[in-house]
Write a structure and sequence with these properties.
Elements: H1 3-6, E1 11-14, E2 25-28, H2 56-93, H3 95-166, H4 171-233, H5 239-281, H6 286-326, H7 340-351, H8 356-364, E3 370-371, E4 380-381
Antiparallel strand pairs: 1-2, 3-4
Helix pairs in contact: 2-3, 2-4, 3-4, 5-6, 6-7
């Protein structure tokens, strides 16, 4: 048998389910990466900000949405960490999977570091934007104050203008009006030039911040694509990981049923001992004890039925896994095979019998002791027969 085919053989060890309180079903499988298409995540920040106008409210809205996206990315990282934790549990039972999960964890740590750096850069941009906004507010207040100061000269000019119309022929009055209004007009032009210069500087500063924020947004989009790629590789929708989780779930469920069965058997023994004493002494509690015994027997039967169903469910998941990996291998000569349908028919009776499964297969395949898979059967390997 080739080394490649030996690596495709899964191992299922069924121990004495009644005597061993820590009975386990081990299903050791290999893992392979299935690289899919990279998931393209759309930009959630919406359209860009117009760079021709100093619209700070629109800029602040972009920063606010950016903060919301960062929060969602933090949640995505948390979800990805949870999935890696599940993958780590799987890797403890499947050594070949552990190497890939470890690689994914390293990638995730690196992406987290990069994302933290982007978040720090975004916070710096927000602080710079706040500073620019404060400067703009100061300029607006200054402009309003200047408008108030200029209102008085404007009113005076209107007054002198009206007076000038009354004394249009009086050149002395017009000269005096021009002389009085000239300093105010000059001051107004100078103030307007200063305000325009400040507004232009603020506009340039906001434009620079817009460019920096756009660069940060593009960098974060790249990080999101990397995160999506990592998440895709360990997605729960991956058929192999889903089947591994299903097998682990059925195994844990079987262990819990074993514990429940042990408790019921212990309670059954206590009731039977009490019944012996009650019958000997004609105790009035005899009827109640018999009723409790019947209830425990019914519960024990239900637990055994659940154990049978759980083991069969685990076998179905494992059967699909084996067929998934080794269906390309041809039927081996000199090897005994058993169909899954035949195995299921006999397993229901054997599983509730103490040591029945192990004894049955060790006797039936005493020479080979190994059942292999050609794509249509279930793989079993028993040790210590």
């Amino acid at each position: 048998m080739s080394q490649g085919f030996q690596e495709t053989v899964a191992e299922l060890e069924l121990t004495d389910l009644a005597r061993d309180g820590n009975a386990r079903v081990k299903i050791l499988e290999w893992q392979k990466l299935v690289l899919g298409k990279r998931l393209a995540i759309a930009d959630r920040t919406g359209t860009g900000v117009e760079t021709e106008t100093p619209d700070l409210k629109q800029m602040l809205a972009v920063v606010s949405r950016r903060a919301g996206v960062l929060g969602q990315e933090g949640q995505a990282i948390h979800d990805l960490q949870s999935e890696l934790d599940v993958g780590r549990v799987t890797a403890e039972s499947y050594p070949q999977e552990a190497e890939h999960v470890g690689w994914l964890e390293e990638e995730l740590v690196e992406v987290k570091k990069q994302l933290q750096q982007e978040q720090v850069a975004t916070r710096d941009l927000e602080e710079s934007l706040k500073t620019a906004r404060d400067a703009m507010q100061r300029n607006i207040k200054l402009t309003s104050a200047l408008k108030g100061e200029l209102e008085q000269p404007r009113q005076r000019m209107k007054y002198y203008s009206s007076k000038g119309r009354e004394t249009r022929g009086d050149e002395t009055g017009l000269g005096r009006l021009e002389k009085i209004s000239s300093p105010y007009i000059k001051n107004l032009k100078s103030t307007k030039a200063k305000v325009d210069k400040r507004l232009e500087a603020s506009k340039n500063q906001v434009t620079g911040l817009e460019k920096d924020l756009e660069a940060a947004r593009q960098s974060i989009k790249a990080r999101k694509r990397d995160l999506a790629s990592l998440k895709l590789e360990i997605d729960d929708e991956d058929e192999r990981i889903r089947l591994l989780k299903a097998q682990l779930f059925e195994t844990n469920r079987l262990i819990q049923l074993e514990k429940e069965k042990e408790k019921l058997e212990a309670e059954q023994m206590e009731i039977q001992a009490a019944l012996v004493g009650a019958r000997a002494s004609s105790s009035p509690d005899l009827g109640e004890l018999m009723q409790r015994e019947a209830q425990v027997d019914a519960s024990l039967s239900q637990v055994e039925e659940k154990m049978v169903a759980t083991v069969l469910d685990g076998m179905r998941h494992a059967e699909y896994r084996v067929r998934f990996e080794s269906s390309k291998t041809g039927r081996q000569t000199g090897v005994n095979y058993v169909l899954v349908e035949d195995l299921e028919k006999e397993f229901e009776d054997l599983v509730v019998e103490k040591g029945g499964v192990r004894r049955y297969y060790c006797n039936k395949w005493k020479e080979e002791k190994v059942l292999h898979d050609d794509g249509n059967i279930f793989v079993l390997e028993f040790k210590g027969c």
